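Bit of a strange request maybe. I'm writing a small parser for structure token strings and I need a real example to test against, not something I typed by hand. Could someone generate the tokens for this chain?
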Amino acid sequence: MNKQPGVIGIKLGCTQIFNDDGTLKRVTVIEAGPITIVDKRTAERDGYTALVLGFGERKEKHTAKPQLGYYKKANLTPKRKLKELRCEAEFADKFEVGGVLKLDELFQVGQKVDAQGRTRGRGFSGVVRRWSMAGQVQTHGTHECRRHGGSIGTNMTPGRTLPGLKMAGQYGDELVSVLNLKIARIDADKHLLLIEGAIPGASNGPVFIRQAVKTRKRKVGR
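Reply from user aminoacidic:
Good idea to test on real output. This should exercise your parser:
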């Protein structure tokens, strides 16, 4: 389980920046802040250690009464998004309920991070769009089956359609993680993270950024 520090935010979109040597970088802009510590999980009380992060503001009239009491107990305003971040006890001890996470204290330029987002939903899609199948031939009398998937059955044995075949169906709207992306720039004052490459999800969609857990370590002498 990844227990590295991280933040929640929203994907603002994609843009490009220039390095000092004039080379171009394609980056995704993430608004990750201000992030408020809404609650803490402790090993003595809950059996594990975690921080509950809150992002954005929500009107009280749009908040359920049980949730509203939860926030008032912590002397906080309702938050739009919540995310529980598993972490080490040493990291959790640095923060108190009501505190704010600062991006420049969690990340550094050039650091590798893992990004998680929900892809755009594409509804019920055919096999050509969903699985990039070639479809049927376009000549020799092909009639109304140019984008069909072809035969899905078997012979007498086993005499049924096997599970897991690539067929038409729901496409998109899945939780996808992209590993080992590099941070290109940090704007702590505006709570912005610029990350090289693409991050799953549509603009204004929620994302979860945390320090990478599978970074490749170079061997000494190579």
